[in-house]
Write a structure and sequence with these properties.
The chain is mostly beta strands. Helices cover 0% and strands 65% of the residues. The radius of gyration is 29 Å and the shape is elongated. The N and C termini lie far apart (61 Å).
Length: 179
């Protein structure tokens, strides 16, 4: 019998990540006086394998709390933003040719508002959002292992060293290390 075995297992066969910064223009119903807050919420996304990478599609909501009418009234404007991003695989197992794979996408940095300003003409918001995603492609791969011809060998001397610890003083501490 051969001294090698081939094991079929699932492994990460491709991996990549992408940081993205995007700018959105949002038009409120009233000319704003000032921005009181900006939040990005409700982020959902999905990923699928494409030719040389992974396509991540998702959406999130941008909420801007602002004042208008010379800072006498407030309102919240919300806009949903959809996105599609291609993430190149930086690590890729060139031996993997199978199309039957699982794609795992993880948001390393959920969409977050970096900056929100009132446009120079004073009737819109310009919002800068950042996000980062990590993708992994998991597929079947083959691992070759060497079989020990005489079975497993345990080094029994390795496990006989317990006597050495009986001589240790459990109350020993170096000066200056007391808590």
């Amino acid at each position: 019998m051969s001294e090698h075995r081939e094991i079929i297992t699932k492994a990460v066969v491709g991996k990549g990540k992408k940081y993205n910064k995007s700018t959105h223009t949002i038009t409120p119903s009233h000319a704003p006086s000032s921005i009181l807050g900006c939040w990005v919420i409700n982020h959902v996304y999905d990923a699928k394998k494409v030719k040389d990478g992974v396509e991540v599609s998702g959406k999130y909501d941008i909420n801007i709390w602002f004042s208008f009418n010379d800072n006498t009234r407030t309102e919240v404007v919300q806009e949903s933003v959809k996105y599609h991003e291609h993430v190149k695989l930086r690590f890729r197992d060139d031996n993997f040719t199978g199309e039957d794979c699982e794609v795992i996408a993880k948001s390393l940095k959920h969409p977050n508002c970096l900056d929100a300003i009132i446009s120079p003409n004073g009737n819109r918001f310009i919002v800068t959002v950042e996000k980062e995603v990590l993708v992994e492609v998991v597929g079947e791969t083959k691992v070759v292992v060497v079989i020990a011809p005489e079975g497993t060998h345990h080094d029994d001397d390795f496990f006989d060293g317990d006597d050495e610890f009986e001589e240790l003083d459990p109350d020993f501490m170096l000066e200056g290390e007391e808590e």
